[in-house]
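In this section we walk through a basic example: taking a raw amino acid sequence and producing a predicted 3D structure, encoded as discrete structure tokens. The instruction is simple. Fold the sequence below.
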Amino acid sequence: MVFTIARGGSGTSLLTLILNKHPQVLAPFESSFLIHIYEQFKAVKEWNELEVLAFYNAITVDAFVLSPYWEINLEQLKFDLLTKGVGTDFATICKIVYLNSGPCSNEVKLINGKSTFAPLHIEKYLAVFPDAKFIVVIRDYRDNILSRKKARSELFNSTTLYAYTWWVHNTHLLHFVQEHPEQFHLLRYEDLVQASQKTVQDLCDFLNIPFYESILDFHQTYQDKARQMDEYVKSGEQNKEKKIIARELQKHQNLRSPINTSRLEKWKTEMPKKDVLIADFICSELGQKVNYLPSTQQANFFTQTWIKFKYLLVVTFFKFKSLIWKIFLLIPIKKRIYLLKLVRLMK
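The resulting token sequence is shown next.
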């Protein structure tokens, strides 16, 4: 089992499509179901039929828990969980879910789970899959902040908040990369698009699978998939699931083309100078460790004071949000989904 983990807006969708083109890899679209159901099932020692059914009911309570992009047959999933999951363990149960995410050939030897919600939940993945490998994807903090601001990824669309969360998440991830290099592989988005063959070949070596140059031509497969999703979105009555898919299709228009560098250093022309100052102030020290150099001179005293004030507010907000999230994950999943829908309506 391998997991692609990153802060959202770092290029994980591109990497997932490349990996999914490999005949020995199943790499479905993003799902963070393990985070949502971990607290409820972490203590289960005996996976009998009742526990398996409770697990099935938890992950299928709403499309948001699994993924609205998975081509999943729920009846087949339930059948597989009951016939192959009873008497096994948490890891096997989760693998069965991934194997039902879409078409899967007999050649598949490796399952890749992608999650941009997981940077602060690595320990949960390791608790279930102690021998798993992890691909940590990182992107220039300025381009990442710009991407997330365009997508309005947070309730408060703040450069300071995006910069701080980039720093928090990647500080946590880089700790694992440095401490466990045999299990965690660092991949920079810029290397993926500028030196694709070498970067993916190094990744295949890390995963112990052969490299095929053909997997870099992922876009042809994705074009067909995107067309099907376009048709689905436009057909019949509109609903929330279709709106989410439409938004994602729009966000990933670039993936319908071959690998290119069009999204590199967008911040140089699209990011206001004050936002660059904030980003450099918060992220540059960590950024330099992965060769992202600051672009601005040190801000003057008054600007620094203002940035520090905003920074302290964001830190307080983030700690409060993290506490709420921990409590939130303890709430029964049906009530949790209802609350998530309310938050989405507020965005």
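Looking at the output, two observations stand out. The chain has one domain: 2-346. The domain at 2-346 is CATH 3.40.50.300 (Rossmann fold). In the next section we compare this with other chains.
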